[in-house]
Amino acid sequence: MKKKSIDSKLKPQASSLKPTIHLHDDRWKKALRPYCKTVEGVVSVIPAKAGAPLRMDARLRGHDMEIAIVLANDEEIRELNKQFRGKNKPTNVLSFPNEEEPLGDVILSYDTIEREAEEQGKTFRDHAAHLIVHGVLHLLGFDHENARDAKKMEAIEVKLLSELGISNPYL
Fold first, then answer.
1. Coil, strand or helix: which one is 26?
2. Where does residue 165 fall: left (phi above 0), alpha (psi -120 to 50 degrees), or beta otherwise?
3. Which of 13, 81, 97, 123 is most buried per CB count within 10 Å?
């Protein structure tokens, strides 16, 4: 069976997340070619397949919600991580939920995602897709602060990624 590309998997649903993509590092252009369509394809599966997320249930029902996806690098994400989490180091993804529209921001670091993908034997594209899903689920109210919540969030991530033809990232 031929694997469909992330870009062509699913069309947005009537109630959907509409990403605004902010390119802060040009390396993303080549890694996720075409990067806008790739990000939109990943984000489009979330409302239809995530179940009943805490924030989505009340806020997304029947209309579109905007989110910002920032394609950044280690330098930028390290500054944000230091400022908002007190951690002076880069990370792969940060999510900043808003109480009003837009739903929030997801910031991804090219450098960390590239390094992790190589270390874990994954493609950059699949690892980035996983972290986009992970970050957006945080915007929708999911978390992994305890084992029960982590298990639930991971199960949803695995389900969403399978819709995109991406294998379980936790194996």
1. coil
2. left
3. 81
- What are the start-end ranges of the H helices in 50-164? 54-59, 74-85, 110-120, 124-139, 147-163
Contacts of 101 (CB under 8 A, 6+ apart): 65, 66
Residue 15: name the closest of 50, 48, 55 by CA: 48
User: 73-131, pLDDT tens digit by residue?
Assistant: 999 999 999 999 999 999 999 999 988 778 899 999 999 999 999 999 999 999 999 99
pTM of this structure: 0.85
Cα 153–chain centre separation: 13
Instruction: Let me know: does 116 contact 80? Beta carbons within 8 Å.
Output: no
Q: What is the model's pLDDT at position 79?
A: 98
Copy the structure tokens of residue 171: 């194996």
